[in-house]
């Protein structure tokens, strides 16, 4: 069986959260942060290593709050996503202030990861089921053949991933009768509307969504050769930018969706019915605290995750 790594994307400051470091908010009964729960569930499922994607200026804080503690239980590494980390021949456009999105974040792991790996957001609680399923897939993953990749993603039920306090962005998935992804469309401004949800496409067109739609929560399983694909694709993305575009992002769902449409990748969608929660907005914190307290009372977690 393969060794497996958990990659946690934690470089964002969280503008909708008021500018604080939302990933480091204490939400567990003993002061745990959401990443504690993801790491606990991942290690319990069998993952061997944890890689934090952060920024260089946040490294010391991450080490203090979580990294030094987790090093007692698993190997920990750090990589850094920076705005200026671009392929040779490119430079940051005038007026650009934020890094280039989740695709560039994972690309920062190039040279660090040599085993199959899962990718998650730092500020999302995913539940136990998805980590078990991703680990089983990755532990048995085989190298790609003839440039054909075989990946996986956790497929969440849209109604289980909405915030009561504002809009969210989700990758709306289409799946064939074999349980494989055929398309994923990043959809913005999603919120509940009675027995449906409403949102907008990337082009700004309004769309209505069934609450039982499958969505991507940026919980993916990749083989390490995917990083080479990200590297070449990032240069293509930068070349295609319109002059003056300082906001477009290189996003994992779009990269994977493009590979699927071109027949270069097949992606198994691993269904999970766990309820997501996270701290997208400051008002979400109370909900997360209460949910984790309830899960602890049910015996799913100990009072202190890591002694």
Q: Can you characterise this structure?
A:
It is a single chain. The chain is α/β, with parallel strands linked by helices and 307 residues long. Helix content is 26%, strand content 27%. The protein is built from seven helices and 13 strands. Strands 1, 2, 3, 4, 6, 7, 8, 9, 10, 11 and 12 form an eleven-stranded mixed β-sheet that branches. A hairpin with a 5-residue loop joins strand 7 and strand 8. Helix 1 packs across helix 4. It is globular and about 50 Å long. The two termini are 29 Å apart. About 2% of the residues have low confidence.
Tally of strands: 13
The SSE string, one letter per element, is EHEHEHEEHEEEEEEHHEEH
**What is the helix tally?**
7
What is the global morphology? globular
Q: Portion of residues in helices?
A: 25-40%
**What Rg, in angstroms, do the CA atoms define?**
18 Å
What's the main sheet like? 11 strands, mixed
Structural class: alpha/beta
